[in-house]
Amino acid sequence: MPKNGQTQQFNKAAFQAAVEKHLTTTYASTDETATARSWYLAMGKALAEISTGNLLATEKNLAEQKARSVNYLSLEFLIGRLTGNNLISMGLYENVAEAMEEMGQNLTDLLEEERDPALGNGGLGRLAACFMDSLAAQEYPAVGYGLHYEYGLFRQSFVDGRQVEAPDAWRGIEGYPWEVLRPELSQEVSLYGHVEGYTDENGVECRRWVPAMSVEGVAWDLPIVGYDNKSVYPLRLWECRSNAPFSLARFNDGDYVGAQYSALEAGNVTKVLYPNDNHDQGKALRLMQQYFHCACSVADILRRHEAAGNSIESLSELETIQLNDTHPTIAIPELMRILMDEYKLGWESAWEISSKTFAYTNHTLLPEALETWSEALIQQMLPRHMEIIFEINHRFMKQVEQTWPGNNEVKRKLSIIQEGPQRMVRMANLCVVSTYAVNGVAALHSELVKRDLFPEFNELFPGRLTNVTNGVTPRRWIKYCNPGLSALISEKVGNDWPANLEKIAGLEKFADDAAFQKRYMAVKKENKQRLANWVEENMGIELDTDAIFDIQIKRLHEYKRQHLNLLNILALYHRLLNDPTFDMHPRVFFFGAKAAPGYALAKDIIFAINKVAEKVNNDPRLGGKLKVVFIPDYRVSLAEILFPAADVSEQISTAGKEASGTGNMKFAMNGALTIGTMDGANVEMREEVGDENIFIFGLLVDEVQKLKQEGYDPYRYYHADSLLRAAMDLLETDEFTPGNPGQLAAIRHNLLEGGDPYLVLADFADYVKTQEKIDAEYRDQKTWARKAILNTALMSKFSSDRSIRDYANNIWKLEPVSL
Ligand code: F58
Question: pLDDT of 437-466, one tens digit each?
């Protein structure tokens, strides 16, 4: 149990009284009428009383100390359930379990009542959540700024194998017990209108925005509780409300309420999270979300700065703003606008402050995910910002001209404005020009950012482009989700590893210890049983925990290649039925993935996997050797059951496409062996665990690029490999869709006629071979146990505490401040 955390403040009787009070006064329940849900809510409220007190104390302390802080701006924070995690951070898990037991309630059951706040899509949003946890654990002063979506990522179900989406009202009708409304922090956000010039009282020519409408931003704080310390940092989520009545004077002054936004209801702005992963849609409402988020957040940062008695000139000394991808980029012209139009600073002074305040993280090289916004749209919604972006670009183009005189091609390439029939603003270019640091999220990815995405920027701004390898929080992703393993680790290396993951290396010396191997594998078996129970209860599929549990859980995307995994399953199916000499260790292939609702091929892949699952799970000819389980509605709380239960972790993206991956790290920490390409953080994981303890296959980045340049022909592989052909051709039959041949043919078509953009066929043979190697090695349980233990032992680099220290030391220049 944490020593110096928030434990000492715990008074059991007072806590129980608080729970009772909330049960009766907040949720109008009596002991007789209370449901598990009302008990969970009342308990959550009682706990939030403690965390809110510490949140206010932390805020006050940081203001008094004039501490330098980071402001993490992200459109997504995929935090997952807070109650269990916060109990661990507060050091109150056992105390509260006991207190609730005395009230006749089982804590584990109550924790199941919480619905996941799914305020993010996938990796990027989950990273933001891990980072907040690590900032608080290490007491680096921080505020997370996000949006208070009414609906989080859609809920997924399957109807006849096809994905069906439903809205995710994550707060329920009662509201979320951990959130606290901060009405005093409300902000007014302007939109539309025009820009006018005027002469101020000193005779200086100025510009100002005359907006046509405004909305109100209301702040909700969620507590990010520091593990084993007293600090609590806010995750501040803005909700948009309409602030009626609109200024009538403006309405009378011409047609300000254009057809484009007259129908707009302010309540729409934060209604729903856009469900795209690695794909940019360019919708006006999305731009409005982004600006609303930035306007509220920048105003709040300036409010805090001033309230602590600091001058605007010292902004970049006390505050840094990290942009989580380009989604909050509009914060840059917003700060410039405020500095110039409201604080009356000149361009140079404003630029000096702004460009030393912002830093930017790039999470993708995929061209379709690089954000651009139509100039016309920005011009209409944010006319003053567009003017400022033009000015930034104008000055930048002069700099380019100095470095590459007369070179129009390089100007066209680097310009923030992309020319064409519809001029577009390239948000990534705006970020690189306007920030003091740009980082990729894994060593390989950051090299590719420099080499392929921004080579000229790297020349122009030496040292600006850097790397910070991602990480994940060991509190949620080992201690909380894998109590069996955690107890074993603590026994061997002491119990301070969750805050000091380097300590976990102490396990290395037990990798060959037969007794330890046995206990380690027994924990794995229990975790597999926990997952098998979930599957049996929720899906009615019975599983054998002696089988290899092989898991691929991540968003559904062609570049992540769930269909490569499927092709191997089809190959196994084919061999089990047609090759009498073929044998395999029983294996269960698990999938968990949501497809963006508009992404047809991704949805087809889900359908295909579900149809194959239906068949193989019920085919007696397979002798139970092959099972396929597609877990519906994959989310953080299910991830907490899946990661600890894995034997094999699937990280099989086309080399160069997955910026980092973070699930890969969670699996390895929990003792799964990776089958993966030389992509993202897999490369660094291999460096840490050694080549013998990871299964690497497939083309390297440069081989992928070369093959594409030479003209890749998927048919070449199809014709040359009879197993591949057998697997592919199964997709055209009615083997898995009886009576309806061709229902799965879209995938085959995409791979052959569609040119196989992610080189699935090129990597197939090596993937199959590597899976065979895994099959053989799993049969030697001692060797397998050794490798699994070494994976746990050698993962300390991938704690998000280390990532945050890298940011703090190399980019933000932050010092911890304890409460
Ligand atoms: C992910 N990006 C990367 N984007 O794909 C993954 O490799 C990396 O580990 C992770 O970021 C953290 O660095 C990602 O999840 C999104 O979901 C965006 C959401 C908004 C629209 C564009 C994609």
Answer: 999 999 999 999 999 999 999 999 999 999
Distance 126 CA to ligand 1 centre (A): 9
Residue-wise pLDDT for 194-222, tens only, equals 999 999 999 999 999 999 888 999 999 99
Q: What is the pLDDT of residues 270-328, one digit of tens each?
A: 999 999 866 666 688 999 999 999 999 999 999 999 999 999 999 999 999 999 999 99
What's the CA gap between 221 and 414, in Å, rounded?
39
Q: Ligand 1 pocket: which of 127, 273, 323, 364 to mutate (most atoms <8 Å of CB)? A: 364
Residue 256 has pLDDT above 80, yes or no: no
Query: Does residue 165 contact residue 556 with C-beta atoms inside 8 Å?
Result: no
Q: What is the pLDDT of residue 245?
A: 45
Rounded-to-integer distance, Cα 316 and Cα 355, Å: 9
Residues in CB range of 87: below 8 A, 6 or more apart: 47, 93, 96
Residue 666 a catalytic site member: yes
Answer yes or no: CATH 3.40.50.720 is held by domain 538-775: no
**Residue 511 vs residue 368, higher pLDDT:** 511
**Chain length of the chain:** 819
Phi, psi of 361 (to 5 degrees): -105, 125
Residue 362 Cα, ligand 1 centroid: separation in angstroms? 9
Given this model, what pLDDT does residue 261 score?
47
Average pLDDT over residues 590-595: 98
State the fold for domain 65-81+116-469+804-812: Rossmann fold (3.40.50)
Question: Do 65-81+116-469+804-812 and 538-775 share a fold?
Answer: yes
- Binned at pLDDT 50, 70 and 90, residue 258 comes out as very low
Q: Is 554 a catalytic residue?
A: yes
The residues, ordered by sequence, that sit 6+ positions from 478 with a Cβ below 8 Å of its Cβ are: 485, 486, 489, 498, 669, 670
Q: Establish whether residue 371 lines the binding site of ligand 1, counting it when its CB lies within 6 angstroms of any ligand atom.
A: no
162-166 vs 180-191, strand pairing mode: unpaired
pLDDT at 681 > cutoff 80: yes
- Interface confidence: ipTM more than 0.95: yes
Ligand 1 and 273: CB distance under 6 A:
no
- The number of CA neighbours under 13 Å toward the Cβ of 703 is 12
Which of 666, 787, 802, 805 is labelled catalytic? 666
Between the CA of 555 and the centroid of ligand 1 the distance, in Å, is 10
Query: Is there an atom of ligand 1 within 6 Å of 665 CB?
Result: no
182 is catalytic: no
Give 660 Cα–ligand 1 centroid separation in angstroms: 9
Domain-by-domain residue ranges, the chain? 65-81+116-469+804-812, 538-775
Which residues face 216 on adjacent strands?
188, 241
At 243 the pLDDT is 66
Beta-carbon contacts of 187 under 8 Å, excluding residues fewer than 6 positions away, are 216, 217, 219, 238, 295, 296, 299, 300
Q: Long-range CB contacts (< 8 A, 24+ apart) of 444-451? A: 444/656, 444/678, 444/679, 444/680, 444/683, 444/684, 444/701, 445/362, 445/365, 445/659, 445/660, 445/680, 448/365, 448/656, 448/701, 449/362, 449/365
Please, which residues bridge with residue 313 across strands? none
120 lines ligand 1 (CB under 6 A): no
The residue written with tokens 């007794």 in the block is 515
Q: Which of 155, 363, 611, 786 is catalytic?
A: 363
| Secondary structure percentages of the chain, helix, strand, coil, to 5 | 50, 15, 35
Residues 684 and 145: their CA atoms lie apart, in Å, by 30
Ligand 1 center to 579 CA (angstroms):
41
Q: Whose CA is nearest to atom 9 of ligand 1?
A: 661
Alpha-carbon distance of 787 to 694, in angstroms, equals 8
603 is annotated as an active-site residue: no
444: Cβ below 6 Å to ligand 1? no
Q: Is the bond into 245 cis (omega within 30 degrees of 0)?
A: yes
Kindly name the residue from 469, 662, 737, 770 that is annotated as catalytic.
662
Task: Write out the two tokens for 157.
Answer: 């179900």
